[in-house]
Predict the 3D structure of the following.
Amino acid sequence: MRLLYAQGDWSLTQGRIVSVVGTRSPSPEGAKRARRIAHALASRGVTVASGLARGIDTAALTGALDAGAKVIAVIDTPLGVIYPKENRTLQERIAADHLLVGAKIDPAALGAVAQLGYYLVQPFEDHPALYCRLYVRSMASPGPRLRGDERRR
């Protein structure tokens, strides 16, 4: 079992969650679509989860935040490491006021784990509250432009 680290409000995992992910280099229309979808979901009480990568992930998180909703960001870097650099403010905001889940922790930060509010959690992708995943793709990429994997409960 792979353990994850989290910083922020774990209670966000208790409601309905929809993960919105996609390409790092979307068309302007693709990014706009991801923002609109995430905004609409968040406006209806759904917690939007995504990565913090450039492109669709950032657009989805921004759309949900614009709706005044809480979000979950799942990253594959150690907590405390900002990537991409242009998402510094977004990542810091999510860690402080929402939920940031990371697959690793910076070994240099291990001594500060308790001070930073990090804690271990079980793998997030299998969390029972994750209702579905929406994949938003660029017009130029192969495959469907929008695909969802619905999880039945």
